Structures are given as C-alpha cells and as structure tokens.
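Anyone up for a design puzzle?
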C-alpha cells in the first residue's frame, strides 16, 4: 500500500483502527471439508477455510477476491462487497 503510494500513513492508521473495531470469532475449521472445497474450487486451502466457515455459520462472505467470490457463489454463499 505504501510502496505504490495508495494510502497515506494517516489513512492506513484510520483503516487499522476500523479493522480493530470489527468483532472477530475464531472458528476451528473442518479440515476434511476445507480440503474438498480447495480441490473442487481449485484454490488454496487457506482461502477454502473461509468458504467452510461461511457455509457452516450460514454467514455471508465479505471479499474483493474475484476467485473467492465465484467459488462462494457456486456454493450459494451470499457475498458482500464494500
């Protein structure tokens, strides 16, 4: 972000403050399902973890990643963008 002058330090600090205000709940993944999702969606297991969590929690997925969004939509996971 700084390397390409996309944000000022002040903007980055404001973004980090907003990020810290988001409540986060850690979930243990169903790694067998994560691996299946990873293979089926042709994506990293790390990314498939988020799909697994969204599926099990019946929660929408917030992403700007086009590959992740397409995989989520195929799985009928609601996607959100800002």
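Challenge accepted. My sequence:
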């Amino acid at each position: 972000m700084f390397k390409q002058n996309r944000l000022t330090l002040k903007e980055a600090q404001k973004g980090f403050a907003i990020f810290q205000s988001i409540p986060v709940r850690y979930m243990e993944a169903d790694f067998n399902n994560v691996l299946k999702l990873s293979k089926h969606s042709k994506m990293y297991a790390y990314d498939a973890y988020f799909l697994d969590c969204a599926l099990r929690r019946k929660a929408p997925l917030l992403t700007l990643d086009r590959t992740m969004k397409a995989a989520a939509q195929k799985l009928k996971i609601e996607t959100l963008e800002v």
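A detail worth pointing out: The beta strands are 61-62, 79-80.
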